[in-house]
C-alpha cells in the first residue's frame, strides 16, 4: 500500500471573533492510498501556517514539506513515518508549528492503519482499559457571576458531572475571581466537579495567594494560572498549594514535555493530540507522565476528530479521570463529521469502528472551505 495524495483543508466560519475559542476555524488533513483507504486527522493551530508546512517544497534533505515526505510511502509504517517527518522538518521544526503539523498526518495514518486491520485505534495502542470517559464541559466564564452560575446549572442539567470555566473576565482582580468562582460553584451545586482555567492571568505570588483563597470552592484542579514559559514559577506554585495544578497544552513533542514535567513539577499534564505530535507522540508523552506519577488529561477544544483521537489514547492509559469536551457553539465542530459523541449518563463512549471511527461530511467541508491544498 502506498500514499497517493495528501490534502489539507482550511475551514473557517464566516465570522471569526477575537476570543479564546479554537472552534472558529480548523485545519483538516486527509491522506489517500492506492488501496482506496482514506485517513483523516486534524491540527489545532493556525491553518495558514499549517498549509505552508504541508505544501513547502524541499530545500534540502533536512528541510521538506510534510506532503513531499509522505507521498509514495507505506501508510502502515506509522512510527517510522513519524520519525521521517520529524527529521525532514528538523531545520525549521523540532518543536512548535512543525510538531503541530505532524500531529494531523500522524492521526490520519493511525486512521488508515485501523481501517486496514479492521481494528479501532485503541486496540492497536494496546487495548482499552475503559469503554467510557467522563467529560467535563469546557466553557468560558460568563460576563458576570450571575451568567456564570446559569451556565453551570445548565450544563449540569445536560448531564455533565464536571465543568471547566476559563478566561473571559476571570483574573482581573481578587474580588472578581472569588465572585466568579463562588458563582460557578453555586451553579454547579455540591456534587459536580469545578475546574478553573485561569488563562495565564496571575504571577506566582498572586497565584499562591489566589489558589488558597479559592480552595473553599473545591476546584478539582486549576489550569494554566501562569504564563506557559514560567516553568520555575509553576514549580514554586505547585510546591506551595494543595490543589492540583495543570498545564501543558502549548507544549509540543515528548522532549519538551519531559523537561516541562521535570522543571515545572505540575500535577496534571495536558497534551493536545492535534498539537503535541499526534497519537504516536501523545502515547509516548503519557508513558513519560506515568513514569513520573503525573495524571494526563487531554486538551481538546476543536472538532470531533480531536475528540475521537483523544478518546482512543485516553482509553489505554492507566489513569484517565476526565475528557475535555468543548461546549463552544461552532457549526464546524457540530456538523463536520457524521459522528458526534453525545454525553449520556454523564459519560462519553469510546468509538468502536475501525480506525478513528469518524468520517467527514463532504458537504460541510465544502461549505466552510477557505482553500484546499493538495500535493500529488
Short précis:
The protein is an alpha/beta fold and 376 residues long. It is built from 14 helices and 14 strands. Helix 1 packs across helix 4 and helix 4 packs across helix 11.
What do you see in this structure?
- By secondary structure, this protein is of the alpha/beta class.
- The chain folds into 2 domains: 3-118 and 361-375, Enolase-like, domain 1 (2-Layer Sandwich); 132-349, TIM Barrel.
- It has 14 helices and 14 strands.
- It has helices at residues 47-55, 66-70, 78-88, 96-117, 121-124, 145-157, 174-188, 204-214, 231-240, 254-264, 278-291, 304-314, 331-335, 362-367, and strands at 3-12, 25-33, 38-43, 132-133, 135-140, 162-166, 193-197, 219-223, 245-247, 268-269, 295-296, 323-326, 348-349, 369-375.
- The strands form 3 sheets. It has an 8-stranded parallel sheet with strand order 11-10-9-8-7-6-5-12. The protein has a 4-stranded antiparallel sheet with strand order 3-2-1-14. Strands 4-13 form a two-stranded antiparallel sheet.
- Helix 6 (145-157) runs parallel beside helix 7 (174-188) and helix 8 (204-214) packs parallel to helix 9.
- The protein is globular.
- The two termini are 16 Å apart.
